[in-house]
User: Fold Cadherin domain-containing protein from Neogobius melanostomus.
Amino acid sequence: MGGMKGTYSSTWIYIFFIIHHLVSGDVTYSIPEEMKRGSVIGNIAKDIGLDLGRLSARRARVDSEDNSVQYCSVNLNTGELVVQERIDREGLCAKKTSCILKQELVLENPLELHRFTIRVQDVNDNAPQFKEDLMKFEIRESAGKGARFVVGEAHDGDIGENAVQGYTLQQNDHFKLNVNSNSARRKYCELVLDKELDREGSKELNLVLTAFDGGSPQRSGTVIIHVTVLDANDNAPVFSQTVYKASLPENSPPDTLVITVTATDADEGLNSEIMYEFDHLSDEISNAFSIHSKTGEVTVSGDIDYEKTSNYEMQITAKDGLGLNSYATLIIDITDVNDNAPVINLKSLTNQIPENVSPGTEVGIINVQDRDSENNRQVRCSLQTGVPFKLVPSIKNYYSLVTTEQLDRELVSDYNITITATDEGSPPLSSSKTVHLTVADINDNPPVFEEQSYSAYVTENNKPGSTLCSVSARDPDWRQNGTVVYSLLPGEVNGAPVSSYVSVNGDTGVIHAVRAFDYEHFRSFKVHVMARDNGSPPLSSNVTVNVFISDVNDNSPQILYPTPEGNSFMTELVPKAAHAGSLVSKVIAVDADSGQNAWLSYHIVKSTEPGLFIIGLHSGEIRTQRDISESDSMKQNLIVAVKDNGQPSLSATCSMYLLISDNLAEVPELKDISYDERDSKLTSYLIIALVSVSTFFLTFIIIPRLLFDGAVAIPSDYLPPNYADVDGTGTLRSTYNYDGYMTTGSRTSDFKFVIPYFLPQLEEYYFEVSVGYSYLNKTFGSP
Ligand SMILES: *[C@@H]1O[C@H](CO)[C@@H](O)[C@H](O)[C@H]1NC(C)=O
Ligand SMILES: *[C@@H]1O[C@H](CO)[C@@H](O)[C@H](O)[C@H]1NC(C)=O
Ligand SMILES: *[C@@H]1O[C@H](CO)[C@@H](O)[C@H](O)[C@H]1NC(C)=O
Assistant:
């Protein structure tokens, strides 16, 4: 049990360790200052436990917390931190005992921040240095043994052991060295008079003072102290305080009074005239402050920037007219003013966001810094409204820019997003940055045809290759994803592949006829055209193109009855007693064209007895125009022309033979027919008679049926003249009842037929024929 418990707790400790790492990171590297560029500081990937292979993909990089100099960088292949910029401890941290660079290792995807610190160790690269090479002292010969003269101190940029450790004074007859520490634990030295001076013995003397540090190797600096021996004695000035403290807001303008230091001198006259000055001023301080030599007023003389230096410490010397010095320390604390607007840094940005990314996708990382302190550096970040993006606060000063909705490149292809950062200073400062985001295309739109369907009208007998129509589809996607290519969908028209009828230009969508069309063959057909884009995978849509072929008058009327060969056996009998207006026969013709092109008209162009017969202009019915008279020739011949109404019109002619007779036996021609035997002659008559009669029947009864069943155009005299069968179904919209009533032989003949029918469909089709066979018997006798 105890063992198990141990395992658990160490697991927890381990997890805690990892989390601790993720959130704060406490890896510290100690390096000496002034390492060469490229020197390895340590392996951060190993120390944090990162997957080496993913460093590059996760765009690992080092940021300093305040985004100033990039002192080190991470090698993406090895995970090592290497020195990037000179790291000068003195420049970075001056006299601070611990010099720490706070750095962050930033990883994206997901955003991760590992803090680490670089502790910069001092290297003894600075020698102790006195303010001047030569110091001048004027000392009265009356000065007693043990009198002290402050020499001041040497400075060493280094710290600790590497800073000034001690002083030695060159061997001499009069002075010894006394080393003291002041409040700031800095060592300064005094000359102590060991043996009285004698102006008469020597008027001046030179001493060499050496300061040394504790570094290895040791460094040292020297100053020559030139002592002039004077005749009288004096008091040194005394500061009212050994340490002065002042506080000053940054950005205080020049001449602002910081503090007034005062020192008093017990002497009178010239000896009490005190001169103040800064001792051992760094450039930094001398550029910022000045001290009035008479009044001791310390004033601002340059830029005071909290972000550069937040406190100053300096030595002030008070010197009386006879050159006796005393020292005080002045510490000035600078207070922060909200003078730095936040700075927005774009740490990473996906410039091309695919439009299909799901809402919540991180497209960028920003980092916000404010160089001020406390509240002045508390920053809030916001985004303009009305864009499908938001800022999600991440670790510390980092924000993720994420999408909030589905993007659509076809609606908005790019965004300019303005990020505003405001600090909490008073008054607050803000700054903004605009980032440009482009939405990258995804092939998410199929081509869409501009019309739901297309119709093309073409007259028959067109030229192959002629243009029928053009289709057009649009695809709003980008480049090849929006490039439309047209093609025919495979299919058949009348059993032949559709490609043998039409072709489509892949680029333009123009549809061409591949062959000449024949209206009499078919009047319309459909093709399906597909529009496909060039995306991968491609998207497509298709549309129906209806091709309508219109008629050209390219068919002459065709005469069905009488047969155009003009066979004289086709002879109609006309009873002698026929009155004016009797129906005698009928010319039946059809025209394969349609509409006007098939609207037929009938004309008698030649006749044996002009005026005896007339023909119905559109019915083709031949009627007697007057009663038959005895003088009329028995044998009548009509030549009938049938014309269609096309432009130009086409025509056909036929001959019609008519016999005015009540009895076939009277027919002279029939006798001429060379039949040897009477019986067979008789049979011939009978046949002829039957043929005549039957032909007439056929004409009226069978042929219409044939016409419809055989899909031949209907004789258009049955149609209203303006009728045009454009929908191609062959359906007529009127009902015709045709009553055929005719007589042969006598007006009162029982040879009668009635053909009521519904013309278009001919579904019901009946007729009643009562043929007087007796008539035939009577005429020809029983065979
Ligand atoms: C974004 O800014 C650029 C440059 O200022 C400009 O050309 C572009 O039109 C802007 N785009 C939008 C969507 O406002
Ligand atoms: C087209 O769409 C695909 C995804 O469907 C995308 O990968 C490609 O980049 C797009 N092409 C262009 C030119 O935008
Ligand atoms: C043509 O389009 C219809 C509906 O738009 C679709 O159902 C059909 O699959 C498409 N045909 C082809 C061959 O793409």
